[in-house]
Amino acid sequence: MTAQPATGADYALTSGTRIYADPGAEGVAQYLAGVLRPATGYPLPVQAGPGTGISLLLTGTDPNPEGYQLDVTSSKVVLRARTAAGLFQGVQTLRQLLPAKVESPTAQPGPWPVAGGHVVDRPRYAYRGAMLDVARHFRPVADVKRYIDEVARYKINHLHLHLTDDQGWRLVINSWPRLATYGGSTQVGGGPGGYYTQADYTAIVAYAAARHITVVPEVDMPGHINAALASYAELNCDGKAPPLYTGVEVGFSSLCVDKELTYRFVEDVVAELAALTPGPYLHLGGDEATSTTPADYARFVNRVQAIAQAHGKTVLGWHDVVNATPLPTTVAQYWGTETSHAKVAAATKKGTKLIMSPASKAYLDMKYTSSTPLGQDWAGLIEVKTSYNWNPGAFLSGVDPSAVHGIEAPIWTETLASQRDIEYMAFPRLAALAELGWSPWSTHDWNTFKVRLGAQGPRWKAAGVTYYRSPQVPWATS
Ligand code: ACM
C-alpha cells in the first residue's frame, strides 16, 4: 500500500455532493450512499458520470482484482479499480478518511471532511475470512447481517457459516426436514435454538454478495453431528436416535461410515447446499472425528469430497482432512496451536492450499486475559497484540508461503449467547487479523498498527458495536 496524505487538500462532503458511478459500479455507489446518508443526513444521489463529486470508476489497472486507487483533493474524490470488488474495498478506505461519527446510524452535525491524499492499495491474500458458529448458539438473520456489515469494514471477503454441530442443525434441508425442525430446536445451555429457512439463507448470501463477501457454508462431518443423528434414527449404526445435546463436549458423535444411507444423506445435503450457494466452496468440516477410526475417517472423507466435487464445489475442510487424501483442489483450514504439523506440511508439498486460523492466534472465542468474562482458554489467552503478531505466510514450518491462500478468524459460540458477546470477543481482534490478511508483511508493525487500531474505537462507539478496550491499544477519543 502507498498512502500519501496531502494536508490542506481535504474534500468537503456537503448536502450537494453527488456520487457518480461507471456502468457496473452502481451497486457499490448505492452501498456507499447507504453508508454515508444516516450520519450526514445528505441525499447523496447516485448517477451516471462524469461529474465532480465522488466518482467510482472501473478504469483501474491494478493487477489484483481487489486493488484500487483513491485520490482525494479539495475538489473531488476519485476511486478507481478494475472490478466492483476493488471499488468496494476502496470504499472501506474512504469511510476511514471521514470523521468517526460517520458510522453513526443517526444524523450528526458536520462538517464532513474526507482526508486528502493518494492511496494505492491491494490485498496480500485472496481469501480473508470470518467464521460465525451459529450452531452452538443460533443467531437470527438480522444478527448475521449485522456481523457481515461489521467485518466488511475491514475488507473481509468470505463469511464461513458453521451451520451444523452436535448442538444444532441450522439450515432447512427439504429432503431431510427434521434436521432443522428437530435438530435445530435447541442449543448450548438448552435454549430454543433456531434455524434458517432456505429463503433466509439465500437472503444472507445475497446480503453478503452485495458487500462482496462470499458465503462459505459448513456442514461438519463425520463428527460434530449429533443434531443430525438425533433427528434421524436410521443414520445411526444401531438404528437408535440419541437425545438432543446441549453440552459443550466434542468428539462423541459420528456418522455411520459403513451405511450406504449415510452417503445418500450426504449427497442430498450437499446437493441442496450446492444449489443454494453461488460461491465456490463447501466446507465439510472433518475436525475432531475422534469417534471414527482413522481408516473409516479417510474412507468417509474421500467419498464425501467426491460428492462435493460432483456438485461443482471446491472442498474446504479443517486441516484434519490431511489424514484422508485431499483432492488436488481441496483447501485445508489450519486450526492447530503449534507452529509445525508434519502431515499438513506434507500435504502442501502435494499441492494442498491452506487457510490459516491457528487457534492460538486467530480464534476469536479465546479469552483476552484470564479475567475476560466470556470465552475459552484451551488454545491460550489472546490479547490484541498476540492476535496481530504472527505471519500467516511463515507460521507453519516446512510450508512454503505460496501454499497459504488466506486467513480466517473463527468465532465459536459455546460461551457466547448474544450478539453483544460475539462483538466483544471479535473486536478489536478481528481488525488485527484482517490487517494480516490484507496488508503486506513488509508494513507489519505493532507500534504503528496499534495507533490505527485505536482510531477504530470511536467508530465502533458511533456504530454501536461492542468491543474490548484493551489496555494495549491507545484508544482515540474522537
Ligand atoms: C475446531 O476448532 N474444532 C476446528
Q: Report the structural category.
A: alpha/beta
General shape: globular
- The main sheet orders its strands as 10-11-14-15-16-17-18-19
Counting structural domains, the number is 2
CATH superfamily of the largest domain: Glycosidases
What do these coordinates show?
The structure is a single chain. This protein has 478 residues and is an alpha/beta fold. It folds into two domains: 2-121, Chitobiase/beta-hexosaminidase domain 2-like (Chitobiase, domain 2, 2-Layer Sandwich); 127-440, TIM Barrel (Alpha-Beta Barrel). The chain contains 15 helices and 19 strands. It has helices at 26-40, 84-96, 141-152, 178-181, 198-209, 226-231, 260-276, 294-310, 342-349, 359-362, 384-388, 419-426, 429-438, 446-454, 456-463, and strands at residues 2-5, 11-13, 19-21, 46-48, 54-57, 68-72, 77-81, 112-114, 117-121, 127-133, 158-162, 164-165, 168-169, 214-221, 281-285, 314-318, 331-334, 353-356, 404-411. The strands form four sheets. Strands 10-11-14-15-16-17-18-19 form an eight-stranded parallel beta barrel, surrounded by seven helices. A seven-stranded mixed β-sheet has the order 1-9-6-7-5-3-4, covered by helices on one side. Helix 9 (342-349) links the parallel strand 17 and strand 18 (353-356). Helix 1 (26-40) runs parallel beside helix 2 (84-96) and helix 7 (260-276) crosses helix 8 (294-310). The mean pLDDT is 98. Bound molecules: acetamide. Residues 287-288, 318, 335 line the site of acetamide (ACM).
